[in-house]
Automatic annotation (TrEMBL):
Compartments, record wording: Cell membrane
Name of this protein: ATP synthase subunit b
Highest taxon of source: Bacteria
Organism (species): Pseudoglutamicibacter albus
Key word Metal-binding present: no
CDD domains xref list: ATP-synt_Fo_b
Transmembrane segments: 22-41
NCBIfam families membership: ATP_synt_b (TIGR01144), PRK05759.1-3 (NF004412)
UniProt KW keywords: ATP synthesis, Cell membrane, CF(0), Coiled coil, Hydrogen ion transport, Ion transport, Membrane, Transmembrane, Transmembrane helix, Transport
Function, in words: F(1)F(0) ATP synthase produces ATP from ADP in the presence of a proton or sodium gradient. F-type ATPases consist of two structural domains, F(1) containing the extramembraneous catalytic core and F(0) containing the membrane proton channel, linked together by a central stalk and a peripheral stalk. During catalysis, ATP synthesis in the catalytic domain of F(1) is coupled via a rotary mechanism of the central stalk subunits to proton translocation. Component of the F(0) channel, it forms part of the peripheral stalk, linking F(1) to F(0).
Stated family: Belongs to the ATPase B chain family.
UniProt-listed Pfam families: ATP-synt_B
């Protein structure tokens, strides 16, 4: 057993690596590190930058769309307020115009009523005058005929018969006024 320990003592330590293996591994690692540093990292960086730009662009677009929507909403609110104001103004104008038309119609109706009343009164007055003239003539002729029959002589004289009729009618009017007072 002594020989086995001696052989093992002269042999390499299994816990220590072989320097050639360490050197080859180190060179391979450095080559891999250079490849990753020169090829893969720039590709990752480019992809990250593109994603960052896309996200920031999307955020900017969203903010712009938000601002545009707010501006459109403010414009809509302003237009809505203007439309309400215009509707109120039109409503008030229509009310005022309706009141004016109503007043004009009432004034015209009052004018028409006054004109019709005036025409009716003029017509009544004209008919009254015509009726009085007709009645005077007829009463005069009846009175003359009656007086002729009573007196027994003809009252042929027109001037005299007219005086008699006028006196008779004056007496008749005096009696009516005395009775009504």
């Amino acid at each position: 057993m002594d020989n086995a320990v001696i052989l093992a003592a002269g042999a390499a330590n299994p816990l220590l690596p072989n320097w050639w293996e360490v050197l080859v591994t180190l060179v391979g690692f450095l080559v891999l590190l250079i490849i990753v540093g020169k090829v893969a990292t720039p590709m990752f960086e480019k992809t990250f930058e593109e994603r960052t730009a896309a996200i920031e662009g999307g955020i900017q677009k969203a903010e712009a769309a938000q601002a545009e929507a707010e501006a459109a909403k403010a414009e809509y609110q302003q237009q809505l307020q203007e439309a309400r104001t215009e509707a109120n103004r039109i409503r008030e104008e229509a009310r005022a115009e309706g009141a004016q038309i109503l007043a004009e119609m009432k004034a015209k109706a009052a004018e028409d009523a006054a004109r019709i009343t005036e025409q009716a009164q003029a017509s009544i007055q004209a008919e009254r005058v015509a009726a009085q003239a007709s009645l005077r003539t007829e009463v005069g002729s009846l009175a003359t005929d009656l007086a002729s029959k009573i007196v027994g002589e003809a009252l042929e004289d027109d001037a005299r018969s007219q005086r008699v009729v006028d006196r008779f009618l004056a007496d008749l009017e005096a009696q009516q006024q005395g009775a009504s007072n």
